[in-house]
Design brief:
single chain, 160 residues, Rna Polymerase Sigma Factor, Chain: A, Arc Repressor Mutant, subunit A, globular, WH-like_DNA-bd_sf, transcription
């Protein structure tokens, strides 16, 4: 059964926005990108084999639109006002981790977000990002190492 654009928006709208936000780090630009993704969906009207295929298509288009936005001459020549996430929505620890993830280079931020938030495996990420699986694994390892360095001393773990 084919879903309407509204049903797809209801089901995947938050995911598309969060993915764009994770890449561009600005809610207003992420909203624009998400809107572009769904306009593309309505214009192209692709046929999907499954819900997973549909989700992967939406993520792929979102990632591509986000990368295009980040490469644009306008984006490279301007500096927007800093947007911060509202602290009330997250615990202090979560806010600290999110800020650290936001500081990662795009290629690392992308795999961390898709792996930990969207729940994709490294094999699925490789396919989705069109990268060798070992590249995905290397990026994850490097991202974890950078996060560990950034968050060093932030959390006290008690072993028991």
């Amino acid at each position: 059964m084919e879903k309407s654009a509204q049903e797809i928006l209801d089901q995947y709208g938050d995911m598309v926005f969060r993915t764009a936000y994770a890449m561009v780090k600005n809610p207003h630009d992420a909203e624009d990108i998400a809107q572009d993704v769904f306009v593309c969906l309505v214009r192209v009207q692709p046929k999907f084999e499954s819900d997973e295929h549909q989700k992967a298509w939406l993520l792929r288009v979102t990632i591509n639109r986000s990368k295009s936005f980040l490469r644009s001459a306008w984006q490279q020549r301007t500096q927007g006002l800093p947007d911060t996430l509202p602290d009330a929505a997250f615990t202090p620890g979560e806010s600290t981790v999110l800020e650290a993830v936001a500081k990662l280079p795009e290629k690392y931020r992308q795999v961390v977000y898709l792996y930990y938030v969207e729940g994709y495996s490294s094999a699925e990420l490789a396919k989705l990002l069109r990268l060798p699986q070992n590249t995905v694994l290397s990026r994850m390892a490097r991202a974890r190492k950078q996060l560990a360095k950034m968050l060093e001393g932030e959390f006290d773990y008690v072993e028991g």
